[in-house]
Design brief:
This protein is mainly alpha-helical. The protein has a single domain (3-176), classed as AhpD-like. Helix content is 74%, strand content 0%. It has helices spanning 3-9, 15-26, 32-46, 49-59, 65-90, 106-109, 115-129, 132-144, 149-176. The radius of gyration is 16 Å and the shape is globular.
Length: 177
């Protein structure tokens, strides 16, 4: 399944999502590695098989093997970190903030691609997963790396539209079942 097939599978009420998938795939604020990696990391973060297949087919081959691996690693590591750090942030017991996480996070230190690209993909996944603490941390690192607001916003826009496509696919499957 390709991006066009995914868009065709979405119902008429999701016209805005279809249009946003197209326009974000063509946007030029992000370079291709950043953009395609955001799509791939977001697809893996949402975990909906048809969305993952479509976006993987569309974008993975446009990335180097190292970048594709790093985008998937961003989704994997944020799947863990977003739960842990959301707990630390939301817990009323403040002593958790003083404890080391004791979680392996080697992918963050050595992602195999430009650190800013990995941070951008991690931000997109953190937005999908709703971890405010991680969103703040990744956004801070991206600002330090010199990424402009428009690029950060574009990554989160991609994440939001991929997440919406996932929600629509799941809702339609539930109605059909």
């Amino acid at each position: 399944m390709s991006l066009d097939a995914l868009k065709d599978s979405l119902p008429d009420y999701a016209k805005d999502i279809k249009l946003n998938l197209s326009s974000l795939a063509r946007e030029t604020v992000l370079d291709e590695q950043k953009k395609f990696g955001c799509f791939l990391a977001s697809a893996h973060a949402v975990g909906e098989p048809s969305v993952m297949r479509a976006l993987t087919e569309e974008f993975e081959s446009k990335l180097s093997p190292e970048a594709a691996q790093a985008a998937k690693a961003a989704a994997a590591i944020m799947g863990m970190n977003n739960v842990y750090y959301r707990f630390v942030h939301l817990s009323s017991a403040k002593d958790y903030k003083t404890l080391p996480a004791r979680l392996r996070m080697n992918a963050i230190a050595n992602p195999g691609v430009d650190k800013a690209d990995f941070e951008l993909w991690s931000l997109a996944v953190s937005a999908i997963n709703g971890c405010g603490m991680c969103i703040d941390a990744h956004e801070h690192e991206l600002r330090k790396a010199g990424l402009p607001t428009e690029q950060i916003q574009a990554a989160v826009s991609i994440a939001s539209v991929v997440n919406a496509a996932r929600a629509i696919v799941r809702a339609e499957a539930a109605v059909a079942a």
